[in-house]
Amino acid sequence: MTQHKIRFGVAASFPESVEAWKETARKAEDLGYSVLLVADHLGRQWSPLPALLSAADATTTLRIGTQVIANDFRRPLVLAKEIATIDLLTGGRFEPGIGVGHPATSATGRSDYDQLGVEMDGPGPRVTRLGESLRLVKRFLESEEQFDFEGEFYKAKDVVPFPKPVQRPHPPIMVAGAGPRMLRLSAREADIINIAPRPPIKGVTSRGSTGFGLDIHGELAILKEAAGERYDDLELCVFADRASLTDDPTAAVEALAADFGITQEAVHEMPHTLIGSTDAMAEKILLDKERYGVSYRIVQGALMEAMAPVIRRVAGS
Predict the structure, then answer these.
(1) What CA dihedral angle connects 168, 169, 171 and 172, to 10 degrees?
(2) What would the pLDDT profile of 38-85 be if each residue is shown by its tens digit?
(3) Where are the domains of the chain?
(4) Cβ contacts of 218 within 8 Å, gap of 6 or more
(5) What are the tens digits of pLDDT across the range 235-246?
């Protein structure tokens, strides 16, 4: 696999003011984060794409991204045009992340799909739609001439692919999701793959799923087979949503082991877990790059400052 350098993203929450948001972006840049990411939900959050433009305007080198755009919420040609425009306006700093969408609920107890008045299909149709959307988005971003597109869910005629993004052939696209079909789709179409949190033994995901009988090794095997020669160019990413910076990791490890129904040793081997001191985290990040190929970690916004010493230690390795 191509030796991608270790880098970090931060999944930011939206503050109460515009200036506070810009200050969050500037702080992320100053602390050494590569990417500032936001989610795509309804309820009490800002619209992700305009918010990211604001963050990019407040910084000079910080990249911006979505974790992740819900495919069912936007038509792919509209999304493609937005991706190209944002990449153009930010001088090539956009990393769009796209997924199938999921039944997240707001503080009111209503899901995004409920609020939209849209029925949420099962995983099969949503994965098929995402695959078509990814191909159509990439066609728009890469094409120099007008084109047509014919799919099961999306059709397009005489598409004018304008504007052109700065990053060529297109901004790096991250796909997040779980299950064999999503892994194969990601391996074929994505540039960055946000791997679902699996233990190194067969267990549950952090959201309680049985994970299709997969472990982290099984996920990587599917990706390698489906990607073929392009596997060497893929960047593997994990969301370290169970990070805990502490000099006494015992309690946190015990709790996570109980959640997953696995051993404490298996907790330490998961690439998604970062529990321990600065030195321990730095050592684990380097080890996970060697054994799994994971080079890109996203941490929660609440840990942005606490993780800074770790970033200074290993970013760019």
Answers:
(1) -120
(2) 999 988 899 999 999 999 999 999 999 999 999 999 999 999 999 999
(3) 7-314
(4) 198
(5) 999 998 778 888
With beta carbons less than 8 A apart as the criterion, state whether 37 and 65 touch: yes
Largest CA distance in the chain: 61
pTM, 2 dp: 0.93
Q: CA 195 to CA 178: how far, in whole Å?
A: 7
Q: β-strands 7-11, 97-99: how paired?
A: unpaired
Q: Do the beta carbons of residue 90 and residue 56 sit within 8 Å?
A: yes
User: What is the b/e burial string over 281-307, where b = at least 16 CB atoms within 10 angstroms of the residue's CB?
Assistant: bbebbeebbeebbbbbbbbbbebbeeb
Interacting residues of 77 by C-beta distance below 8 A, sequence separation 6+ = 136, 140, 156, 159
Query: Burial level of 30, CB count in 10 A (0-12/13-18/19+)?
Result: exposed
Q: Which fold has domain 7-314?
A: TIM Barrel (3.20.20)
